[in-house]
Amino acid sequence: MSEAAVPSLALVVPCFNEERALPITVARLREELTRLENDGKASRNSAIYLVDDGSTDGTWDLIEKFAGEHTAVQGIKLSRNYGHQYALYAGLMEADGDALVSLDADLQDDVGVIAEMLSAYQQGNDIVYGVREDRSSDGAFKRWTALTHYWLSERMGIVTIHNHADFRLMSRRAVEFLRQYREANLYLRGIVPQLGLPSSRVHYRRDERVAGATK
Length: 215
Fold this sequence. Notes:
By secondary structure, the protein is an alpha/beta fold.
């Protein structure tokens, strides 16, 4: 890709019962998208894709409201609650864009490092993983379960990126490779590293939820 090319960016955000968080999240993402566009990191036709994973609160009503108010906001509604991984996959399959960044609706992922992700993408990386600097904010039980998860994954031969959840950038090429997978039980953290495409990492500190409760 030419260094001069400015990619269109898609922010893909799975949402399940995020009525309390969404107003804050959408405002923050629109602010960041504007900044990236003004800095020449993302093109003016970039967008935010909010995927409603069968919410039972007012999440979809809010998504419709934001989509009606802002051309950069798009809504995708699933027929029922399929789970986070399926909602994320559906968003990636439907979203337009040269570079697609997936992140959670609670804003625990640091949107400030998306600029770094785009720089790594411009340097030829099809996948850029957001990796937590540390887990000091987690309780002892959560740290133990994370370590156990990575240990079990490695024992089963599943390649995973330590301290990485689903905060990542994927190029259009990577998304099209992902489209070829027809897994019955989606686990994107295990599938994406198998794509075998050039990749990089950016590090960030995970914040507290902006509102609402962990699902």
